[in-house]
Amino acid sequence: MNKGDILYHREFKFFNGDASNKLLVILNTPPKIEVPYLVSKTTSNQQNKPQDPGCHLRESLFLIKANYDFFKKDTWLQFYDLYELDGRDLLKDKFNGLVELCGTLREQTINEVLNCIRKSEDVSDYHLKLIGQRGKN
Question: Is residue 136 part of a domain?
Fold first, then answer.
């Protein structure tokens, strides 16, 4: 699994403890198993969200228009609360059928997403370190 890959997680656990089906976008390619995967949740709920494709720093969102990349509907990547996933747990969930790799963003798209995230004040220095400097993993 690499940056730009899109995962379908059947029992994704949110910060509040709830769990549900969720599409996630991987934002980094960890160099070793001890480094977590950083993922962004997605939503196709349009309510109160910007409609122009691309980076929306004020809202900490990135809009990918329907049928441009993988997504069939307009889809917003949410980076106001990024999630770290342990590589071992993620692999175990994949083998147990809870996680499936279902697509990959174009390289240009994932690079635009990462450059947007790098400009956000909502993203911690640690998470910025996980996604690396411009042009790097």
Answer: no
Question: Which residues have C-beta within 8 Å of that of residue 88, sequence separation ≥ 6?
Answer: 33
List helix spans (H) across 1-133: 87-95, 107-119, 125-131
Collapse the DSSP code of 5 into the 3-class scheme (helix H, G, I; strand E, B; otherwise coil) and give the result.
Answer: strand
pTM of this structure: 0.91
Domain of residue 112, CATH code:
2.30.30
Report d(CA 105, CA 68) in Å as an integer. Answer: 9
Given the structure tokens 């499936």, which residue do they identify?
100
State both tokens at 28.
């980094």
pLDDT digits (tens, 9 = 90+) for 114-133: 999 999 888 999 999 999 85
Domain limits at 29? 5-131
